[in-house]
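Cross-posting from the modeling subforum.

Setting up a comparison between two proteins and wanted a second pair of eyes on the formatting. Protein 1 (sequence, then structure tokens):
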Amino acid sequence: MKKSSEDLKWRIIYCYEEGFKPKEIAERLYVSKTAVTKVCKIFNKWGCIDDPFTRRSGKRKIFASRDMQIQKIAYERNKTLHGYFMYQIGIEYSVEQLIFINKISKDERSVSCLYALMIDGFIAADIMEGSCDKDRFQTFILTQVLPQMNPYPGKNSVFIMDNARIHHDEDLVKSIEVFGCRVLYLPPYSPDLNPIETAFLALKSWLKKYRDVANNCDDPIYILFVALSQTTSSIFN
């Protein structure tokens, strides 16, 4: 698995945390079992998806024992944030209020996908060729998602996003809050808290089941929308 995207590595970890075996993960995500085992081993040791002590191209970096200790502290801190987020969601919000936002791309040079998911299923999606920039993300939120939201504490009133840089836009957050909605961010390294990851696996399963249809479709964006329409709330049952 050369130059695997962070997206793919986190999906490996998500499946691993769900209890899937390396062989099952490899079959689901179309990667080698060796690659799955390597990513999981790094995550178990460091709490991240890349070995911080692997030599990379460019100027050599020298790590001391202090750096290793900092890495371990960061991992433990993330576990605390993870627990607090779960507590906050469970105490302050109902599942009907939550809308999860995520960007998924297999290869940003080909196709990128923006999704908005609620308990009943997907409420909005934008699938595009190439990578997604800040303007495209803002347009997706303001024109497709926000019109379906309600002021807090109504149904569909709380946005939940990961900590990707594209999601931290002050003007966008203000626009959402002016409408009366709230914005929450997932803790770092917490793809397991975003149900869109589960939905993505269901979408991939559909594409695998109907591989002949997908392979004979000239428009990859169209077939992704078809697969998306088949991904319903039943995936959470």
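Protein 2 (same layout):
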Amino acid sequence: MDPMRATVHQAGETGPTVCGYMGLDGASGSAAETQKLNFEEQPDSREFGCAKTLYISDADKRKHFRLVLRLVLRGGRELGTFHSRLIKVISKPSQKKQSLKNTDLCISSGSKVSLFNRLRSQTVSTRYLSVEDGAFVASARQWAAFTLHLADEHCSQGDFPPREGYVRYGSLVQLVCTVTGITLPPMIIRKVAKQCALLDVDEPISQLHKCAFQFPGGPPGGGGTYLCLATEKVVQFQASPCPKEANRALLNDSSCWTIIGTESVEFSFSTSLACTREPVTPVPLISTLELSGGGDVATLELHGENFHAGLKVWFGNVEAETMYRSPRSLVCVVPDVATFGSDWRWLRTPVTVPVSLVRADGLFYPSAFSFTYTPEYSARPGPPGAPEPAADADADADALLESIHHEFTRANFHLFIQT
């Protein structure tokens, strides 16, 4: 779970501002099932804590569960209780050959994954592929989520647009850090068995499988170059061809990675302007926006979760008239664009404002969404007797408006023209 972004420091205080307790939903809450988190301040001023001993017992037959995190501020005030998304229980890696008839454990392009390396199957030697200070590292403490993309092998050198589908061994893939956006070069993912990369396997990748990442190119007949760790560094390892089987390459332990699907949940809020003693949870989350109407009256429906009647929608620093429909739906009236500047009507640039939610007590919940007002181009009225604008100017304005309309529809929004 990503660290909370909140203003909770008090003047003159140093060190972690929160402590936390993490457990599983449905657990009894005993000390054995709930672990205290000790947070440490990171170089980027974030606070990090991890739970390493949480587990599901053999007697628990659930197929899915959620993590529950309770955060308490220094001084004892409860910040809130946060829940993860559903997590699938995978007791051990599947030994069966995977097929697309059963995709429960398959990994699709665009999924979030984590990679870890465990030397000689020792838990204490586990290192996770991560990103620190703009570089890939092998961390013993923190794991990172990466988006796994299938890359198009037929594109020109240096251009690897992602494509859809389930990821198979032998495919060209690219790993993108979900936090920093930093990417590794496109690599070929290989299945690993008995510390060998299998070069002729093309079955779908499965959760908890061991795999290797081969850099394309290299001399014919060579073993290939693979992604490898050396203590805390991520390096390249030159594999050796298998003398007995041409379709295998010999790897070292540090080139064998275990792949697992992951999910991260991020909650954003600010208490800097709020005078509230209530927990910040449940945090409302916006998933999609739906625009209706136009002209003088347009409405925007927000779809998401954890909505309630005490929330108001804000466009930038302007509060919108908001109607509560259900815990998953809010509807608001789009404010007149004139509230953002009286000269907007004569400008030739769209105006984009952030969409956020504010609780009745002033607690602010930002979102990743924004709203764009697109102008209807018309000439500023001139003095009486002034000549009319040239026809080609109107044509240019129409062409510009058409291009903006195209961008709007490409982003799945309807064009809204303020009159």
